[in-house]
Amino acid sequence: MAGSKRIGILSSGGDAPGMNAAIRAAALVGRSGGADIVGIERGYKGLLEDAFVPLMPNDVSGILREGGTILGSARCKEFHMREVRDKARSILANRGVDGLIVIGGNGSLTGALLLCDPKELGSQALNVIGIPASIDNDLGFTGMSIGVDTAMNTIVEAVDKIADTATAHDRTFIIEVMGRDCGYLAMTSAIACGADLALFPESGKPEQAIIDQIVQTVLTVRSRSRKSRRVIIIKAEGVGISTDKLKAEVDARLRDKSPNADPSGIETRVTVLGHVVRGGRPSAFDRLLGSRLGNVAVRALIGGDTLKMVAWMPPSEVPEDAGRCSAADPKCWLVDLGAVLVETENLLKGRSPLTRWRAGAFEEIEGALLM
Ligand code: F6P
Fold it and tell me: What is the mean pLDDT of the chain?
């Protein structure tokens, strides 16, 4: 396949700290490799509105340490419609764009796969490379996606602060963290924070078992004689039971167990970290990860590759015909986009060995380090 000469870059879906590092690296490396680089604002939505912007070295200077994405981002549900993708392809053709870098998560990379599906493309010259970016770390075949490390650090910082006040008042906190259907952020940050319990969807526990586990944890911690009696529970947003309902059920059970206690003393407090987890300046790791993935992505397009995602150190075996180590960076792999999306689905449905490994590894550590 011919190498791309004019490359568009867009960021799509939930933004992730480190996206700017990928934009910057792809723009600078692409230009020095002889390609023309342009930005597209607000993901596929902006593409449909023909919102192109220049990405000259000046435009990307100083963006490395900024959170979010200078190109803006959006979700674009209409992109699953063939006629909408046809419109996007004709806008790209009018602009002379023959290569596209899509920086985003599951939905964004699905859009990339459909956009360049040979059955729909016909004779149009358009190649696409995806860069995994989502704080959820729910994409297949990549050890890390852009934004995960910063999100973990943000959670740890917030939980450390909550733990100070929880300890001062002997309180129980349930802290909800983002992650959509994936419990990675909850599991990893629970270990990093020394939490007493982590709740995540991959455990498959039914509601009553979750409530029992929290009540048991609170009673165990409170029966200890040592000074600190705070209880920190980190809950992934993907856990089936809502945090409000969880609080109500747990509080009722704790009141039953301690009828003489002051109810305000035993009731749980809730903090939903929400979008705080997605913001902030990218960590050093995310700046490096974004830069390395951006570098490999643009080189892949210039070299004529298409329909691949640049993965960071795949944590599960990539099928032989679906991936290869990139010549530009031994830690980055070019993995077939279709295979990535199948593995992502497996990961989320609990069918991937990685899901079982994550939950199993967490339980081993949990037994020794938490509680
Ligand atoms: O996928 C990233 C993410 O932040 C998820 O963790 C979360 O469930 C979702 O996006 C929130 O999306 P929005 O910002 O569109 O409400």
Answer: 95
Range 322-326 average pLDDT? 95
Ligand 1: which atom is nearest the Cα of residue 13? 1
In 95-183, which residue ranges form alpha helices assigned H by DSSP?
A: 106-115, 118-121, 148-169
pLDDT-based confidence at residue 97 (cuts at 50, 70, 90): very high
Rg (CA), the chain: 23
Domains of the chain, by residue range, sit at 6-147+282-353, 167-279
Distance, CA 203 to ligand 1 centroid (Å)? 21
Ligand 1 site, CB within 6 A: 14, 105, 134-136, 178-180, 237, 278
State yes or no: is 244 an active-site residue.
no
Atom of ligand 1 nearest to the CA of 136: 6
Looking up tokens 């809730």 gives 270
What lies within 8 Å, CB to CB, of 294 at 6+ separation is 21, 22, 23, 24, 25, 26, 29, 101, 131
In CATH, what number does 6-147+282-353 get? 3.40.50.450
293 CA to centre of own chain: 15
The pLDDT-based confidence of 364 (bands split at 50, 70, 90) is confident
What CATH number was assigned to the domain covering residues 167-279? 3.40.50.460
Would residue 67 be called left, alpha or beta, if left means φ above 0 and alpha means ψ between -120 and 50 degrees?
beta
DSSP states along 172-210: EEEEEE--TT--HHHHHHHHHHT-SEEE-GGG---HHHH
Which backbone phi and psi does 79 adopt, to 5 degrees? -65, -10
Closest CA to 68 of 113, 117, 110, 103: 103
Cα of 277 vs centre of ligand 1, distance in Å, is: 10
Mutation test of ligand 1: which of 12, 42, 77, 135 has the most ligand atoms closer than 8 Å to its C-beta? 135
Interval 149-178: pLDDT, tens: 999 999 999 999 999 999 999 999 999 999
Query: Residue 371's pLDDT is what?
Result: 55
Same fold, 6-147+282-353 and 167-279: yes
Closest-CA residue to 48 (of 15, 78, 6, 20): 78
Catalytic residue among 15, 98, 136, 336, which?
136
Query: Alpha carbon of 128 to those of 98, 212, 297: distances in Å?
Result: 9, 48, 9
